[in-house]
Here is the input.
Amino acid sequence: MAEEERAPLLTSEAGDSTQTRNRKRPNLFPTEPVRSNAVCADDRIFVNATVTSPSEIEPDLIVAIFVVAFDTRSGNMIEWCMPDDAELDGVEFKAMVSGSHTQIKDFVYFRKDNLYGLACFENMPVESDIERGARMKSVGILATSYTLLYRHLQFLETQVRHQLEIPGKYTQLQAFYEDKTSAALASLQVQSKSNTPTTPSKDLIPELKITHPAGCFTQFAKFFGEQIFILWKYILLEKRILFFSPPPIGVVCYRVYCACCLANHDIRGLGKKIKPQFYVNVADIETLESEMTYIACTTEKIFESKTSLYDVYVDNQIVRTHSPILKELLKTSSADKEKFQKLNNLRSAHQFSYEELGEESIDEEEVFVSYFHELNNRLFQTLLDVANSQDTQLTSDHMKSMGLDPQGDRQFLMELVEHYGIDVVLMVDNPCCPK
Here is the structure.
């Protein structure tokens, strides 16, 4: 026997399935734009800007540079910034995160309104009673896109050490800002004359590009294990996901980014690309209250009790939710275990093929990003194909072809088709009534 469960009618027009792109190393100057890439090394998230032809390279749209210091009487404060009238309210608590005093060094990605920031923090011991034996500062920048920030990490690391050793000397920071803004203005003028768009499409969200042998996605998968597919389901359902961890926060910022990449697909009309919020603190509560979907991280434990702000709370490796329906998705299905094993097998196979060629390492985005990209394409395209068929019946065979467990993933699939408004009839085998 089988019972029927129907989801609402699809309201968005879906496009045709798209073949998987060639994932070999791209030509740096192709005639057509290529998607953005990310680079991780030593637990640091770097994101390459979209690359087009030489005349279409996106300018460095840096809008502010700043120094944050910890004052024993006033707390975090903006010590210096450029331009002088930059709107930096609250940045001092993002660039120097809660609990950072326990660290020697750290870095953080964050969002302020429609801008993205990167700051490098360092804590240096000093023989000073006024500073209570420690001098702590952060040097950071704000830009219009997080895809450009990675370029300046090393500079910011150098400058925060400089600010600790020789406080009050801002000449290099000022020269950096003036150089970047003048270069951006010149690029904008050239593009304006050539009628070339100054920024890539908002729909183009960077993919993960890993060049370090122990890259971001490998660490992400090893850290969460099979639970990566629990996160995958919540992300496809566009839930509000908050990662918590004590400092250092830099490593958690890349977890946010990796999580965003789990939802990549090419099926038009289904969902929006998720932009990472990165680090958030109590000052962001009002912003988070208005977000329908987000992925963020925090070092502030107080968020755990504010369950209205999130759907899923990830405390290091522990994934929790207060929603009764979402709790049913916390258990990994047999299909999840199979997918995780396949993911590991794919990586091993790629590693072996590279070793045969004498290569030292592999571009692991060819394994991880491509895997989830293809998995999501197959899942959504199958659902749309069934919805457009005459009987609209989704069978166990369909679920298996999508990489799902007909029993263990039934609730997830019901939530998915309801969330996206895909009109299918889910044929669920009743174990009490054999066929």
Summary: The chain has twelve helices and 15 strands. The radius of gyration is 24 Å. The CA atoms of residues 281 and 298 lie 6 Å apart.
